[in-house]
Amino acid sequence: MHELSLVMSLLELCEDEASRGGFERIDRIVLEVGALSGVSVPALTFSFESAVLGTVSEFAELEIREIPGTGWCFHCEKTVSLQDPLRSCPGCGGSGVLPTGGMEFRLCELIVRDDRSGKIPEKGGD
Amino acid sequence: MCVECGCGSQGEGKMGGRVLPHHHHDEGDHSVSHESHGQEEGGGSHRRISVEQDILGKNNRIAQGNRDFFTANGLLVLNLLSSPGSGKTTLLERTIGALGNKVPLAVIEGDQETSRDADRIRRLGVPAVQINTGAGCHLDAHQVAHAVGELALVPGMILVIENVGNLVCPALFDLGETARVVLFSVTEGEDKPLKYPRIFRDADLTLLTKADLLPHLDFEVERAENALRSVNPRGEILSLSSRTGEGMEGWLSWLSVRRTGVGTVPDLPA
To answer: What number of C-beta contacts closer than 8 Å exist between A and B?
Structure first.
């Protein structure tokens, strides 16, 4: 469950952006998660839901853009698709594949608002 | 004082009487945020902020600070990784015994709870700091930066960071180490590298440990090596037994070569 500490790092980045940008609420957090990043999306979502309470991200929707894994096969001499870091080439079956894409784990953008009004009611409001 | 967590650390590492900067403060390459504004039906003023930052960026920045510190001071720093019970601490004990007083060594121990491992190392006269991660499943660069501040380090020292026994999470967290050493005990099954590829992929050295048990097991070394090669064609592989001492010379020689490569430090005495 390293995803919980990844989420804590993410929430910290969001708080930093909030104090820098002077906004009070995040509506959406857009992430890129590569297939070879070692990050489990279900575990990430679960950890996020557990950890956001009381933060500027509390009402944020998590949008995850999954990036497919790719690698360079030295035998086929081309870029191939990699589902996992086991590195077998789907073409020749060889293991001489160097991962080239899908290692991303990035915060891309935030949709934020300057006040707490909007569709989602304030906490404690009836 | 560490500005990051306010923990009261002096925020400095000591090295041969000199005071060195603490490298883990949040500084450097924060990207400039780009914003665009808009109104939406829900009311309130909406903005889109482009952040484009690695979520592990903070850990990686601190790790790079650690690495610069280690390199500048001629330290060989190893991140020792494995599943629980594969013999990390026993290997350290035997290594300390073999190096004797010839090479200065220090250890950072990571475990969820207890100081049992650090106590084992200190009993041998080697300085050790225990990090208890509590609920955490890995060490991160920030914890290591603090632990380094507690050790009296000298140039040419080997610093071993024994990570939390776990084949999954520690793989993602750079600590600033010079090299990653993964232990793979022969009681674990030859296909371990295929099941946990991430950690084996980045190993500079994989040590097949408990080799003295091979005659009693169905473990085939060649199959294990093939599995390792398929996830990590570049890393070195050595096998040894901490219990009998078999293969220890290969490991000590690897340490000697890596230590020499770090900077202007003398070779290990023969």
So the answer is: 108
DSSP class of B32: P
Asked whether the beta carbons of residue A105 and residue B55 sit closer than 8 angstroms, the reply is yes
A43-79: pLDDT as tens digits: 999 999 989 999 999 999 999 999 999 999 889 999 9
**Which of these, B110, B109, B105, lies nearest to B75 by C-alpha position?**
B105
DSSP string, B109-138: EEESS-SHHHHHHHTTT--EEEEE-TT-SS
Which CATH number characterizes residue B179's domain? 3.40.50.300
| Adjacent-strand bridge partners of B148 | none
Structure tokens belonging to residue B162: 């024994």
Rounded to whole angstroms, the maximal C-alpha distance in chain B is 77
Q: How many CB atoms lie within 10 A of CB B61?
A: 21
State whether residue B9 is helix, strand or coil.
coil
CA dihedral sign, ordered B179, B183, B184, B186: positive
- In this structure, are residues A51 and A19 in contact, taking their beta carbons and an 8 Å threshold? no
Beta pairing, strands B152-153 & B205-209: unpaired
pLDDT tens digits, B149-161: 999 999 999 999 9
- Domains identified in chain B, total number: 1
Structure-block tokens of residue A81: 């698709």
Q: Is the ipTM of this complex over 0.90?
A: no
| Domains assigned to chain A | 3-68+103-113 (3.30.2320.50)
**B chain contacts of residue A111, beta-carbon cutoff 8 Å:** 46-49
Beta bridge partners of B130: B109
- Residues from chain B contacting residue A112 (CB–CB below 8 Å): 46-49
Structural domain including B247 reads 59-262
Amino acid sitting at position B74: G
> Is B214 within a domain?
yes
